[in-house]
Predict the structure of Glypican 5c.
Amino acid sequence: MSRGICPRVNSCGPFWILSAVLLAVNVPDADAYSCHEVRTAFQLRQVGPLSRVPETPGTDVDLLVCKHQGPSCCTRKMEESYQIAVKRETLHNIHSYSYELEHIISGHSDAFQDMFQYLLSFSQGHLSSLLEVTYSSLSRQALPHVNQLFSSLSLYLKGANVSVEAAVQHFFNDLFPLVYTRLINPGIEGHMMVGSEMGDCLRMIRQDVNPFGSHPAVMAQELSGALGTGRQLGLALEEGLEVMNATEHVILSKECVKGLVKMVYCSHCRGLTLIKPCVGYCLNVMRGCLASVSELDQTWRRYSILLEQLTHAMAGHHSLELALLKVGDHVNEALLYAQLHGPLITATVDKVCGLSTGEPTGMQPTSPEVTTSSLTLSSSLPSASPSQPLPEQWQGRLAQLRKDFLMYLQRYKSFFAALPEMLCEGENVVDDATCWSGDDVVKSYSGRVVGNGLHAQRQNPEVKVRSPDPTLAEVKERLERFTQETQEKFPNLGQIEAWDELSSGETEEGSTTDCDDEDGCQASGDGQEMTSQTNGSSEGRPAGRQPGGDRPHDNPSKPPSVRVIGKSSSGNWAQDCSLALLFAALCLQWTLF
């Protein structure tokens, strides 16, 4: 172009020389306001069709968001594309920060459920082995009832509407006919069928006859407490996932989207594609956009504390592992109790059910029959008690799982309050001089920086918050209700101290025993249980009744014949002493005769 003019300049007057000089001056200005950089950014960030971006800035552009005086590289269509893009980018950024927390919750929810199912399977296997080795006469018929019991417990831990108390009582109801015909009175086994009317009668009267003492009630109480906290922890983690899902799909209001476009893309309209927002400006925009999300902060903090308390409860005073591992002990003790009180049980059943085969064999003063081989086998059997804990690799895994979970809970307690700040960190903003304020390039943001939450947004100069997000408000209310109901259901959660080591092999602080779980100290409650059978009550445990109702067990003038199969759990010294005294009395009688 200059080549075509220059020849004319030599042949023309001063007017043309002046015109050429002015044109040469204006060319650099046109290049400075080129939209090349804007087109490049528009394409790289996949904002929309590149055809929407002009080659050169326009001077008469009617924009809705990115309004400013002077030429602009933006159009109405570009603003529409910017709104779609900024919503997509913001939700993606929110998801990138919430993903780890969501993954932690879902991962630990699965891990805890896997742990629960392993413990159930471990305990079920030990109980089945106990019955097969020690009580072989009834094991085959009892195994379906064992499977049903643990199936119910599994459903309960998964959140199903199942009663632990009912499952335990149903198990012992089904077990009673087998115990009565195969352990207490094996001689009448051929005279009745367990599935007959007499078998139904035995099931119906089991709780009234009370053939197993307080062991079913104690077992149900321990399982209800321990499994209850485990079940509630699983439900709580599901509630947390619902909150995270609602957060990731938060609806950004029109005012929010306009504020985001102004913060992220309006500088492009002036050709400033590399300038970044000021930190304070970004905080105002993000806190305005996430005002309803920030309202979850206090509710989430209380929820996090609840998770900690449930974890401590499951690992400490209501240890789920110990409760499940003691199921075999409770069943074994219940069967021993039934055999020791066989004569009175037989007399009561004969009156109620009319089950008579002559004089009950259990009432004849014959010599006691103790299955020595069973005693020997049961001594080597891995019993479901703290004296035979979980495999070492699983103990370490459980302790580490709890420890990691509690550590992550501490880290994410303030997640919803900190989310706007996390979105305004790093490469997204500039904390130094020269940053974008939404209207111009400034050395520092001069606007007032507001806090989190809906109330604080009244003073927000960047984003107007007209009403709370109804979906998030509903999520908040539901989480608050869940937390409140859990605290009412477990009123002592806040009083349970943290178990620092969180290992089933550790003794809690304040314990009065000097031994650890592997020494069988956790079974010390058995001694209290025997006291309840004698005195009628025991602190912290349901009071047991003697067979046949509330009547005390009157010792007959002659010691009854007792055929005892099985072995008392470690630490149950009172029952062992009863057996020893009984045998001593019998030996004395034989000596006299």
Q: What stands out?
A: The mean pLDDT is 76. The longest helix spans residues 76-134.
